[in-house]
Every structure is written in structure tokens, then in C-alpha cells.
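Exercise 7. Given the encoded structure of a 395-residue chain, write a plausible sequence.
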């Protein structure tokens, strides 16, 4: 990924782009914020009802200024755009300034524009939309101008699948308006997807054929969607207002008409990637479902149940053996205890000289429990003697 631009670098690039794109700009507006600087430069703005742009006329060009500028004046300016890099603001550098006044052509233009607007020629509701993927485009323009070559070049790079039909047409001079009308009518009969009517730049007199009423009528009456591509960005012709779409230049008309093949390639790549990801996700999900079902089947199969029962039987058997073993061990311990007790109580194991076992009524008793006249048995391992207690004395 590229490193980010610095602010200065970005402003410098914008400055270069503006200065090379708008080498000569012709604009009209009303003066505001006027300042005659002590350096001899004149700073001001021009505006219309929606926008404002900063302007400057440097001292070297003020010698061509034949009148004094005043706030509120309507003027025409020729100059070029530039960017003041430290602030990132753009302004119009004025080389010539003239008072704005209507000549014959300008007045005719405004009159026809008003007339056609009242007739509804400019209404957006009647304008036809352009097809997204045109297969055939008819060009009503001069076969020898630079415009046709520019359009072919843009089309080759943008969408080489399109087919062009050229209707050679006069686009300048007294006879141009009639030839443009005839060419538009013929082009409309070819049933193409889009019609581009236009020419390259020139003076207002050079472009005037596209301001004629009969040309406007021909554009209005066509069934084919029309793009008006006359002159440069700053040129606005009657044909621009009547046509379904206005293009800044003939090359721009091709850009408007055709999709960008590179964007579609990128889009197709993204679709392919998305399809792969979705396909992989579906396969993974199905695989996990199968694994889950297999585990459930294994857990609930007869073999699994038999294995579970066998395991439980084995546990019970082991538990039984452990308990039985504990019982045997416990009984053996009890028996051993009894045996030990018996052996301890066996007179044979207790025989000592001078010692006998005293019992009464076949029960072993202690000497201190005897009473006078009790009949007792005195027993050794070998002999039993019967005796009567005649006296008892406590020591």
C-alpha cells in the first residue's frame, strides 16, 4: 500500500491538475469583496446566485483594464485557475476583464433559451435515460476533427465491445445547422442505443449551429437518447439543454455513455472471490452438519447402546466384586478377631503356676464377685476342681 501524501504534496498535485486542466477559463459573474491593494494587485470575488470564486488580477495585467472595477458590476473574465498551496484555496488569475454586455448572438441565445424553456424542451421529466450497456452508438460529428479521434481512443480504453456508426456532419458554418438536422434524423432511423451530437471547442461563432432552433427541434423530436457534447466545459449550448444528457466534451460523452471495463473486471473478481468464500462456507457448514449427524448416529446406534450396557455391566460386575471382596475381607477380619479372642481366652494359653480359672454356673467370673457358700469350679488346662467358698477377705 502506498504511503500517505503530505498536505503540501496533495495541494501541489491539485495545483498542477487545475493549472493544466483549466489553462484558459472564460467566466462571468458579479463583483464582490473588491480590494485595490497598495501593491497594485486587485483582489475580488465574482459570484452568481449560488456560488462564489476568489479572483486576483496582478499589477502586470491591470494595464489592459479599461475601466474601474466596482462592487456589483457584472463582468466577463478570461484567465486560468491556480491553487495557493499554503492555504489549499483555489482562485482565478485574471488576464482580461471586460464589462458584461449582450451582443446580438448573446441576445438571440437568451431569447431562444427562454422560448424553448417555456415550451418544455428542457423539462427533466421528458428526458430519456441512457442504457447501461450500449451495443451501438451513432456519432453525429465531423469525420476530420480531433473530437472523433478522442472519442475512439476513450472508447477503446473504456469499453471496446461497443460499435460506432459515424454520420459525417458539418459542424461549423452557415450550412451546418441544416446538415446537423438531417444527420440527427438519419441517425435516429438507425435504431442505435445512443446518439452523440457534438464537436470540439471553438469560439461562440464556431459553435453557433448548436444554438439554432431547428437543431433544438430535431434533438427534441428524436426517439434515440441523445448526448450533447459541444465545445469545452465552459461552453453551454441550446443543444445541451434540450438533449437528454449534456457532456462537457466529446470525450466526456463517451465516458458517460460507456461503462468502465476495468471497474467491471474488478467487480467480477470481487464476485468470484465472494462466490468462493460462500462456496467454502456452505461446504464447511454441510461438513459440520454431517459430522454432527454422524456423532448423533454413533451415540444412538444399537452398537453404541450395547457398548453402553456392556460398560454398565462391567461397572456393576466390578462393583459386585469389590463389595464381595470387602465382605470376605471384613468376615475374615471378624473371624480372625474371634480366633484371636478365643486364643486369648483359651485356658491352655493362660496356664501359669498358681493360676486357675474361676467359673460359676459355667460362666467365668472374677474373684471379687464371689459370696460365702458359692460353689465354684477351679480350672486349669488339665484339671477341674469344685470348691465351696467359706470365707472372703479383702486385702
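Solution.
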Amino acid at each position: 500500500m502506498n504511503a500517505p501524501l503530505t498536505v503540501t504534496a496533495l495541494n501541489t498535485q491539485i495545483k498542477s491538475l487545475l493549472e493544466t486542466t483549466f489553462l484558459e477559463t472564460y467566466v462571468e459573474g458579479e463583483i464582490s469583496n473588491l480590494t485595490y491593494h497598495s501593491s497594485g494587485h486587485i483582489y475580488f470575488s465574482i459570484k452568481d446566485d449560488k456560488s462564489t470564486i476568489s479572483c486576483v488580477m496582478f499589477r502586470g495585467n491591470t494595464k489592459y483594464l479599461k475601466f474601474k472595477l466596482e462592487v456589483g458590476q457584472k463582468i466577463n473574465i478570461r484567465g486560468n485557475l491556480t491553487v495557493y498551496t499554503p492555504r489549499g484555496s483555489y482562485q482565478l488569475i485574471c488576464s482580461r476583464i471586460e464589462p458584461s454586455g449582450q451582443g446580438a448572438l448573446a441576445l438571440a441565445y437568451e431569447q431562444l433559451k427562454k422560448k424553448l424553456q417555456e415550451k418544455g424542451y428542457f423539462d427533466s421529466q421528458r428526458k430519456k435515460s441512457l442504457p447501461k450497456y450500449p451495443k451501438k452508438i451513432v456519432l453525429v460529428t465531423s469525420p476530420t476533427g480531433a473530437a472523433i479521434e478522442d472519442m475512439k481512443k476513450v472508447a477503446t480504453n473504456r469499453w471496446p465491445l461497443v460499435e460506432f456508426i459515424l454520420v459525417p456532419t458539418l459542424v461549423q458554418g452557415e450550412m451546418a445547422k441544416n446538415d446537423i438536422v438531417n444527420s440527427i434524423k438519419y441517425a435516429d432511423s438507425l435504431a442505435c442505443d445512443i446518439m452523440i451530437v457534438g464537436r470540439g471547442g471553438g469560439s461562440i461563432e464556431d459553435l453557433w449551429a448548436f444554438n439554432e432552433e431547428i437543431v433544438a427541434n430535431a434533438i427534441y423530436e428524436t426517439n434515440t437518447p441523445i448526448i450533447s457534447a459541444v465545445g469545452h466545459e465552459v461552453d453551454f449550448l441550446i443543444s445541451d439543454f434540450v438533449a437528454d444528457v449534456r457532456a462537457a466534451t466529446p470525450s466526456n460523452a463517451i465516458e458517460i455513455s460507456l461503462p468502465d471495463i476495468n471497474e467491471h473486471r474488478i467487480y467480477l473478481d470481487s464476485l468470484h472471490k465472494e462466490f468462493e468464500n460462500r462456496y467454502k462456507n456452505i461446504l464447511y457448514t454441510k461438513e459440520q452438519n454431517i459430522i454432527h449427524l454422524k456423532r448423533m448416529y454413533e451415540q444412538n446406534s444399537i452398537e453404541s447402546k450395547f457398548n453402553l450396557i456392556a460398560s454398565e455391566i462391567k461397572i456393576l460386575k466390578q462393583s459386585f466384586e469389590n463389595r464381595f471382596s470387602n465382605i470376605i475381607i471384613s468376615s475374615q477380619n471378624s473371624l480372625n478377631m474371634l480366633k484371636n479372642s478365643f486364643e486369648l481366652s483359651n485356658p491352655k494359653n493362660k496356664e501359669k503356676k498358681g493360676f486357675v480359672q474361676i467359673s460359676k454356673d459355667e460362666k467365668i467370673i472374677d474373684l471379687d464377685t464371689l459370696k460365702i457358700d458359692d460353689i465354684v469350679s477351679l480350672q486349669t488346662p488339665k484339671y477341674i476342681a469344685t470348691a465351696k467358698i467359706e470365707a472372703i477377705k479383702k486385702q
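Remark. Residues 354-388 form one domain. Students should compare their own answers with the one above.
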